[in-house]
C-alpha cells in the first residue's frame, strides 16, 4: 500500500492475496473508508489511491470484474472522468472521496479489498 505502482501492477498484487483493488460504490462505503479506514491504515492525508475502476473497451468505466459502473453511485469530481487520448484511464480517490481519471501507467498507492 505504501508502494507507488501502476494500476495493473496494483491489481495483480491484490489478486495474489485473493483480493482486488478497493471499490467504493455507495456513499456510505466512501464515507466509512475516508472517515475510518484511511486513518486506521495510516495513509498520508495527501495520498491518492487507485480504485478498482478502469476505462473499458467502449470508453465506459467498469469495475475489476468488468461490470459497468455508470448505473452505480459514483463520486467523480466535476468534469471527470476526462479521457486522455491514446491511453487507458483508471480511477483514483483522495481523502475527500473524490474520483479522478488518471492514466493507468501512472504510479499511485493502493488498497486491496478481500474478495467476498
TrEMBL record:
UniProt keyword ATP-binding, yes or no: no
C-type lectin domain residues: 1-113
Superkingdom of source: Eukaryota
Pfam families: Lectin_C
InterPro entries per UniProt: C-type_lectin-like (IPR001304), C-type_lectin-like/link_sf (IPR016186), CTDL_fold (IPR016187)
Keywords carried by this UniProt record: Receptor
Identification of the protein by name: Putative asialoglycoprotein receptor 2-like isoform X4
Origin species: Stichopus japonicus (Sea cucumber)
